[in-house]
Amino acid sequence: MATHSGGLNPAHGTGTTTVGERPAIRTRRLVRRFGDRDILKELDLTVAPGEFTALLGRSGSGKSTLLRAVARLDHTVEGSGELTVPDRVSLSFQDSRLLPWLRVIDNVTLGLRGPRARERGLTALAEVGLEGRDRSWPHELSGGEQQRAALARALVREPELLLADEPFGALDALTRIKMHGLLRELYERHRPAVLLVTHDVDEAVELADRVLVLEDGRISVDLTVDLPTPRSRRDPRFQEYRDTLLTALGVAQPPALSEEKESHAPHA
Fold first, then answer.
1. 220-225-229 Cα angle (round to 5)
2. Is-contact 165 97, C-beta < 8 A?
3. CA atoms within 13 A on the CB side of 160
4. Residue % of the chain over a pLDDT of 90
5. Pairing state of beta strands 52-56 and 193-197?
6. Virtual CA dihedral for 78, 97, 194, 187, nearest 10 degrees?
7. β-bridge partners, 90
8. C-alpha dihedral over 123, 127, 129, 132, to 10 degrees?
9. Helix H or strand E segment including 213
10. pLDDT tens across 205-232, in order?
11. Radius of gyration of the CA atoms of the chain, in A
12. Which is nearest to 135 in space by CA: 125, 148, 150, 147?
């Protein structure tokens, strides 16, 4: 468990953990500053082990800044506060970032040590539906297959925390739906804590058990999604969560939808 401290006193943040249980993410009064502008403003956040959390926010709200801080990739950024994360952290990005000069299996096992590294890589590829593609080159894979390989690379290390920065943003709609199912299935099997950054409200409600809205450098909404999986977007409760989050993001509901709901409402 890695801790970066700015010498500040602990404060109560969003999220809960069991007594004696180390959180997957814990920030206290976290500040990140670019020039004279504070992007993260004394942000408090707790994510429990095994918790699937999605992070929404408008452009410029600080989502990427928070993700980079949690990933420990912002050493040159000015800031303060306390940040605690596990030692085993994996990242998944919008593009697969596979190295074109390495075969798929070598991309997946890059950096792994030990006699079972290749075996673990083959198992991970099978889990994401790429069995038999281990000797392929990245350019021989479709966009969806490349993201599957990237997920295999992230999960083969059995991370305690998976950070996903809009991993499906570049995929077509049908492939994105398939990847949603795959990610949730892999999450259920491996149970890492997940922090998913996305602009897609539907994606957040479909995948996550908790959705945060980041606004002006602070958490403005912390919503628990109490729906069984797999989730249906036709479920009225799904729509309620969706409407709540869209309102929090400042997105007005289309008038046609509002009128349709009113027309179906029971009359007194």
1. 150
2. no
3. 16
4. 74
5. parallel
6. -170
7. 162
8. 10
9. strand 210-215
10. 999 999 999 999 999 999 999 999 989 9
11. 20
12. 125
